Amino acid sequence: MKSLVVYSSRTGNTQKVARAIYDALPEPKEIFSVKEAPDPSAYDFLALGFWVDKGTVNAGSARYMETVTEKKIGLFGTLGAYPDSDHAKQCLKKARALVQGNDILGTFLCQGKVDPGLIKMMETKMKNDPHHSMTPERKARLEEAANHPDEKDLADARALFAELAKTAAGKVSA
């Protein structure tokens, strides 16, 4: 079974998770940023990573995900929100929709630091926007997000994708 990890990362969060996942996968395996990613047809298992942009998969990852068909995949992503929040669940639902027709074996989301430029924009230009203004709650969440992905997040990603790879290998040989 040949595995491929493809990711997009704006602030380095998703790249950290991608590297952790890559380390957990058995050989043969390859890892690429979405900008250099190969055609997915030669791979049996794909780990597809994204960062959340405006409530959905970032554009580069979305374009790549739409090229994947009839594969065993695991999705992973990073976002500033809590990974168990309704917002995160909606983001994951949108990611799943991009890869319909594939066998989605599992998903992983974790918090990650938000681009400082976006935080600044929330504090200034969006201060009157009811959905994006900098409330005390949002500020606390973003401060917490800046500490992620942490070692526990990376260990959780490694453990999950090691299991997903075993499941995929069993399905490939069956």
Textual characterization of the structure:
Helices cover 42% and strands 22% of the residues. It is of the alpha/beta class. Strands 1, 2, 3, 4, 5 and 6 form a six-stranded mixed beta sheet that branches. Helix 1 (13-24) crosses helix 6 (151-173). The radius of gyration is 16 Å and the shape is elongated. 39% of the residues are buried. The mean pLDDT is 93.
What are the main properties of this structure?
6-stranded mixed β-sheet; 174 residues; 22% strand; alpha/beta
Q: Using DSSP, what is the number of strands?
A: 6
User: What's the average pLDDT?
Assistant: 93
Number of helices: 6
The run of helices and strands is: EHEEEHEHEHHH
**SS-derived structural category:** alpha/beta
Main sheet record = 6 strands, mixed
Radius of gyration: 16 Å
Instruction: Provide the β-strand percentage band.
Output: 15-25%
| Poorly predicted runs of 5 or more residues | none
Distance between the termini: 12 Å
The helicity comes to: 40-55%
* Global geometry: elongated
Summarize the structure.
The chain is of the alpha/beta class and 174 residues long. It has helices spanning 13-24, 59-65, 86-98, 116-123, 136-145, 151-173, and strands at residues 3-7, 29-33, 45-53, 56-57, 72-79, 103-111.
List the helices and strands and how they pair.
Layout (H helix, E strand, L loop, with lengths): L2 E5 L5 H12 L4 E5 L11 E9 L2 E2 L1 H7 L6 E8 L6 H13 L4 E9 L4 H8 L12 H10 L5 H23 L1
Helix pairs in contact: 1-6
